[in-house]
Amino acid sequence: MDKSQLKAAYKNQLKKLLQYFIQGIVVLAPIGITVWAILSLFNLIDDLLPNLLHSIFPEWIGKDAEGNIEKTTGLGFILIIAFVLLVGRLSSIFMVGRLVDILDKVLENTPGIKIIYSSVKDFLEAFAGNKKKFDKPVLVSVDAVDVWRVGFITRLDAADLDMKEHVVVYVPHSYAISGITYIVPKEKIKPLKNISASDAMKFTLTGGVVEIDE
């Protein structure tokens, strides 16, 4: 091999190594981020109970020689998950449900607190529970003719705004937790009947990278 051929072979080898490196990142990054997120959530929940008990009953749970609160790994996580399940079960009982409704009304009518409480409650109910809002995926034209965005109908009409012939559509942004609410005429939307709401949300949030399941 002459000098030019050696240089070309060296460049090709570097390109292959770079390609393998990028491919390795593509494979490992989602796995690593997922594991990190799960472990972080586990540790966060697992630390809640010991920290709470120590702040209320410091004599029950002490600290080790390094000043860290003593805990049994996994116990706090299990107890908190069990507590959440218990609250969910009890809230389905009529009398407890009535008490929860009363507390709900008190919090929603308390100045200052109602802004935070109502915002968090409405946000969570939009994704889960019996009042899910993002369950009607559509295509909506808001920018130009034949240019469409993926969105979700949150209200079938805008009667509150004296626009009964319009619908309220929330359009999430890709790779973000933000979005825009549009009020558009009904003829400017196309229902996505063969796509589930979760698939439509994944497709939108990832900028169309994720394939829609059949």
Amino-to-carboxy terminus distance: 53 Å
Rg value: 26 Å
Query: What would the principal axes of the Cα set say about the shape?
Result: flat
Estimate percent helicity.
Answer: 40-55%
- Mean pLDDT, to the nearest integer, reads 77
Number of strands: 5
Order of helices and strands: HHHHEEEEEH
Please indicate the percent range of residues in DSSP E strands (runs of 2 or more): 5-15%
Spatial order of the strands in the main sheet?
A: 4-3-2-1-5
Number of helices: 5
- Quickly count the domains: 3
Largest sheet: 5 strands, antiparallel
* Low-pLDDT residue intervals, each spanning 5 or more residues: none
Secondary structure class reads alpha+beta
Describe the model.
This protein folds into 3 domains: 1-89, no CATH class; 93-129, no CATH class; 133-205, SH3 type barrels (Roll), CATH 2.30.30. It is flat, with a radius of gyration of 26 Å. It is an alpha+beta fold and 214 residues long. Helix content is 51%, strand content 13%. It contains 5 helices and 5 strands; from the N terminus they run ααααβββββα. A hairpin with a 6-residue loop joins β3 and β4. It has a 5-stranded antiparallel β-sheet with strand order 4-3-2-1-5, with helices on one face. It has helices at residues 3-56, 75-91, 94-108, 113-127, 197-205, and strands at 137-140, 149-155, 166-172, 179-185, 189-191.
